[in-house]
Amino acid sequence: MESTHFSRFLFLLLAAGILILFACANFPTYLPPQPSPRLSSRCSASSSSSSNSSACKSRKIAGILKQPPNPTAESRRLRHESATPQHPLDPLTIQELNKVRHVINSHHLFKSPSSSAVALHTVVLEEPPKSAVLRWSPGDPLPPRKAFAIARSGGDTLLLSVDVASGELKADRASDSSPSGYPTMTVEDMTSATWAPFASADFNRTVTDRGVELSDVACLPISLGWFGKKEEDRRLIKVQCYSMKDTVNFYMRPIEGLTVVVDLDSKDVIEIVDKGRHIPIPNAANTDYRYSAIKKNQRLDLVNPISIEQPKGPTFTVTGDHLVRWANWEFHLKPDPRAGVIVSQARVKDPETGEMRSVMYKGYTSELFVPYMDPTDAWYFKTYMDAGEYGFGLNSMPLDPLNDCPRNAHYMDAVFAAGDGTPYVRPNMVCIFESYGGDIGWRHSESPITGMGIIEARPKVTLVARMAASVANYDYIIDWEFQTDGLIRIKVILFLGVLDI
Ligand SMILES: *[C@@H]1O[C@H](CO)[C@@H](O)[C@H](O)[C@H]1NC(C)=O
Ligand SMILES: *[C@@H]1O[C@H](CO)[C@@H](O)[C@H](O)[C@H]1NC(C)=O
User: Fold this and answer.
1) Considering 20, 140, 330, 430, which has the largest number of Cβ atoms within 10 A of its Cβ?
2) How far is 260 from 270, CA to CA, in rounded Å?
3) Ligand 2, atom 3: nearest CA belongs to which residue?
């Protein structure tokens, strides 16, 4: 398949199939699983706060703004290590996550001979009941802090509730409440799926028979699921491979028709389907999307650096790391491994009474479904749940100051738990800024015939909370935009930048 056709194909399918559901209501039973990135092995969510491998580095170039890191990694680490929750909905802190990990690891349910037997697929705050949150006001003690976790151990999936202060742990079997299904993968699951095919001599032979060097092959865990009767009771994933030869943009060089089914628990290769031998691997030429590579071949006319002045600084404040106040708005904002961000208790001031009126108790991305709808063997299973399987938060890489978000933006870090429960910091995951695009927010001018001489206009300034999830070759920007008239606008922007070359 020609690469341009390939990109158009993907885009059309995506445009036709994408289904985005936003749940903006009170969901007391929301249980976010902790999924993992499609491209896990190289540079995405690992248990460290940042990665320095050459595969994930593509630093900035002339014409694109560069801001020195602020704060330093060390001061960031210290701040998170000493953080204490300030609000009932604040995410679990590093200290709380460490406590939860300790409680789970030392619980008799998980004290099996092999300590690696427990995998934590999610560890997040178990939010207090809505009534308790609404009753709370600043200065009150916080409602009991609890963690919700999904653990897999000995082939069972357990839903855990851990009281952080007392260490009390309650466990329910997932199979008691839902008859089938598995939690989303951990990063460790995904990484092992990436390498699993190479343990198979058949796989190696198939690849070399196609004339591809094994050292050039990159495999990605694609879709997990149930693919047939004989695979009952197994946690399976289909893996697809690419040639990285002569390009960083390996997505453009699929080894088409080659699908490897891997058992995520045993890491065994269950099946290799190779039906694409007649399909050539697209050429590597001109597939590199990085500016440094593009400029050799074509002229890219970048505009001059631009920034909006705020001589008196921004109007918004962020208190206790998560409570945002701006103009007539107030809301709680936190990163979440699955949803990306959760906006809670969004309230707007009534200009007549001064009362803060509730607009939304809780809002987040519930799912983003990308079904390709191609019935052929190598494609039918490509029905991604980009939030639920991969995790919008887990796949949100740090934002690039001045390019992803404007000057005067405030950056919020995420604190997430790895598959063994160890907390880690994802820096600059969310940014908050005032947006002004030269538009008018309100205006009226009076005709000269009235003799009143009125010309009045006010600029349209909004407040934006932004994150960017890179789910393999799809870059999603999620903007929560707040307007002074009380409207919340949710924008989902998709860049298929790596294919658009
Ligand atoms: C990261 O890479 C840079 C440049 O390759 C190197 O100078 C630096 O020491 C590396 N940092 C770590 C923590 O490995
Ligand atoms: C397949 O190839 C990889 C990469 O060269 C190698 O590490 C692995 O041992 C091979 N597997 C088998 C079963 O020969």
Assistant:
1) 430
2) 8
3) 198
CATH for 3-44+68-184+303-495?
2.70.98
Q: Residue 139: which region, alpha, beta or left (left: phi > 0; alpha: psi -120 to 50)?
A: left
Cβ–ligand 2 distance for 198 under 6 Å, the answer yes
| Token pair 């802190």 in the structure block, residue | 93
Q: Is the CB of 216 under 6 A from ligand 2?
A: no
Query: Which numbered atom of ligand 2 lies nearest the CA of 198?
Result: 1
Which CATH number is 187-286 given? 3.10.450.40
Per-residue pLDDT of the chain (501 residues; tens, 9 = 90+): 344 444 444 444 344 333 333 333 332 222 222 333 333 333 333 333 344 344 334 444 445 566 666 677 788 888 999 999 999 999 999 999 999 999 999 998 887 665 457 899 999 999 999 999 999 999 999 999 999 999 998 888 899 999 999 999 999 988 777 766 788 788 888 889 999 999 999 999 999 999 999 999 999 998 888 777 667 778 899 999 999 999 999 999 999 999 999 998 889 999 999 998 999 999 998 888 887 777 655 666 778 877 788 999 999 999 999 999 999 999 999 999 999 999 999 999 999 999 999 999 999 999 999 999 999 888 999 988 888 888 899 989 999 998 899 989 999 999 999 999 999 999 999 999 999 999 999 999 999 999 999 999 999 999 999 999 998 888 999 999 999 999 999 999 988 767 665
Of 195, 204, 216, the residue with max ligand 2 atoms within 8 A of its CB, to mutate for a pocket test, comes to 204
Nearest ligand 2 atom to alpha carbon 201: 13
Task: Return the residue whose CA atom lies nearest to atom 10 of ligand 2.
Answer: 198
Q: Is 25 exposed, middle or buried (0-12, 13-18, 19+ CB in 10 A)?
A: exposed
